[in-house]
From TrEMBL:
Record-given protein name: D-lactate dehydrogenase (cytochrome)
Domain FAD-binding PCMH-type, first and last residues per copy: 54-248
Known cofactor(s): FAD
UniProt keyword terms in alphabetical order: FAD, Flavoprotein, Mitochondrion, Oxidoreductase, Transit peptide
Pfam families attached to this UniProt entry: FAD-oxidase_C, FAD_binding_4
Taxonomy of the source species: Eukaryota, Fungi, Dikarya, Basidiomycota, Agaricomycotina
EC numbers on record: 1.1.2.4
SUPFAM superfamilies named in the record: FAD-binding/transporter-associated domain-like, FAD-linked oxidases, C-terminal domain
Length: 507
């Protein structure tokens, strides 16, 4: 058993974040998905996150250590007061952490403990510490961005890629911790599938474990890797992961318009059931298409109708062409018009960009607005009901919004635009009703963005009290002091009771 404190002692350096207001234990990613401008990138935050990761792990480990030794001394240096649920949502204060740092300095050589930013960078971050293997897998650090990783594979001439594709700035650690997916999920599934072979994790008590070895399969016990997928950093800090890669195949893009969302969805269901080579199939509502025109970065003016963006994939251009022809015939049956299939790679990239720019084009609809991005997911056949009811609700609320959806998975994202506090409050109510509707349709409060703080209150309704209690039991067992991401994921005691779905009229 390797304790983290042991590891750092051997390395002769302990790095802690001095600048962090609530030093260290919050692992970033508040899941408050608001965006203020096109230029705003998550990159800087990501760098800080990865830089602080080592410090965070140590801080948390230290917190556990300090809480334990303090308990023995009858004086708690950390604020570990509990809610009736047994979990608390309080972070250590700056004073708590300063005290803990000084205690750590007493335990070790004082020079071995540092809060220096450069030490944090050197010990907490490695830019290129990953290496493809002959087995189409790769060992990497949690701070690596999936896009950088795929770029690096391309530059090295390795015809493989990691197919989970959430936001461009997302990192492997965050992606695993949210159980992410993206436009490719319809072909490759999600982080909850088989893409993560193992993770190395620092547990709240400082112990470092690796969940399993690198072999493709294992039936040795239950899958402890999965415990950390979607745990939102509440059970441990992932410090390394072995991920599977997929063959990089030629792709192409087509776009087609429909009279309405129902027709588009029915076409998607038939396309999916044909088993043709589809990598992505994305629904963009008429408002998104209008926004793309307003944004003005597209190579064309789009008909402002509900549209499907389809990415074909196949081992040869001929197989792609064949898939495209099958899809062209299917969409005709559902009154699809204007089917446009890219003839060159550049054309395909241009078309796809109009889908990928959803956040920025959406924000262009209301100058100076901010956007609340949220997602829900339902069985595919129920998506039209959800979309219609939600659109109707949004229209009545007076909020401007665009919708894009990973329609092949029944997952859609709404971008709600607001400028004032009043509008923000209206958005909050709209999101609440959207979630209630998704649950009523046998869906989930979040298909991929995660629960975070804002959606904890829906977990009991969605999963049932028994399942939530099981989650809490695991949390309490691994992290009895609730040191890791307190306040995230698990509902508070007063949220841990079933409340029947509300309808828009009584909210
Ligand atoms: C424009 C936009 C589009 C998006 N599209 C998609 C999409 O298509 N699909 C999708 O799935 N998501 C999407 N998202 C959401 C987001 O990209 C994903 O949730 C992503 O997986 C988050 O990764 P991150 O690195 O940003 O994690 P963060 O937001 O930094 O963190 C997420 C959670 O993981 C925890 N965490 C981070 N690193 C670690 C670690 N090493 N160990 C333990 N816990 C850790 C954090 O504490 C936090 O609780 C989108 C977001 C935006 C803004």
């Amino acid at each position: 058993m390797t304790s983290l404190l042991g590891v750092v002692a051997r390395r002769r350096i302990i790095a802690l974040s001095r600048s962090s207001k609530h030093a260290g234990v919050s692992l970033g990613g508040s899941r408050n998905n608001t965006h203020s401008s096109a230029g705003r990138q998550a990159t800087a935050r990501r760098t800080v996150n990865t830089t602080l990761l080592f410090g965070c792990a140590l801080s948390a480990s230290l917190g556990y250590y300090a809480a334990n030794s303090a308990a023995a001394r009858q004086s708690a240096p950390l604020n570990v007061s509990k809610t009736p649920s047994g979990l608390n949502d309080q972070y250590g204060t700056l004073e708590d952490f300063q005290l803990a740092i000084s205690q750590l300095r007493q335990e070790f050589d004082p020079d071995a403990v540092t809060t220096d930013a450069e030490d944090l960078r050197v010990h907490g971050y490695s830019e290129n510490d990953y290496h493809p293997e002959d087995d189409s897998d790769l060992v990497c650090q949690p701070g690596v961005h999936w896009m950088h990783l795929n770029d690096a594979l391309k530059k090295k001439g390795i015809p493989l890629f990691f197919p989970l594709d959430p936001a461009p700035g997302a990192t492997i650690g965050g992606m695993i911790s949210t159980g992410c997916s993206g436009t490719n999920a319809v072909r490759y599934g999600t982080a909850k599938g088989e893409w993560i072979l193992n993770v190395t994790v620092v547990l709240p008590n400082g112990e470092v474990i690796k969940t399993r070895r690198r072999s493709r399969k294992s039936s040795a016990g239950f899958d402890t890797t999965k415990l950390f997928i979607g745990a939102e950093g509440t059970l441990g800090i992932i410090t390394e992961a072995t991920i599977r890669l997929a063959p990089l195949m030629p792709t192409s893009v087509a776009v087609v318009q429909f009279p309405d969302v129902r027709q588009a969805t029915q076409a998607v269901i038939e396309v999916m059931n044909k088993g043709v080579g589809i990598q992505c199939i994305e629904l963009c509502d008429s408002e998104h298409m209008r926004a793309t025109n307003v944004y003005g970065m597209s190579s064309r003016k789009w008909p402002e109708k509900d549209s499907l963006f389809i990415k074909f994939q196949g081992p040869t251009p001929r197989s792609i062409q064949e898939s495209a022809e099958i899809v062209r015939e299917i969409v005709k049956k559902y009154d699809g018009t204007g089917f446009e299939h890219a003839r060159t790679e550049k054309e395909a990239a241009d078309l796809w960009m109009d889908r990928k720019n959803a956040l920025y084009s959406g924000l262009a609809l209301v100058e100076g607005s901010r956007g609340w991005s949220t997602d829900v997911c339902v069985p595919v056949s129920r998506l039209p009901d959800l979309v219609y009811q939600t659109k109707d609700d949004i229209q009545k609320s007076g909020i401007v919004s665009t919708m894009v959806g990973h329609v092949g998975d029944g997952n859609f994202h709404a971008l709600l635009l607001f400028k004032t506090d009043e509008e923000l409050e209206t958005c909050r109510h709209v999101v609440h009703r959207m979630v209630e509707r998704a649950l009523a349709l046998d869906g989930t409060c979040t298909g991929e963005h995660g629960v975070g703080i804002g959606k904890r209150k829906y977990l009991v309704d969605e999963l049932g009290e028994g399942t939530v209690e099981l989650m809490k039991t695991i949390k309490r067992t691994l992290d009895p002091y609730n040191l890791f991401n307190p306040g995230k994921l698990y509902p508070d005691a007063d949220q841990s009771k079933f409340h029947p779905s509300v309808t828009p009229s009584n909210d």
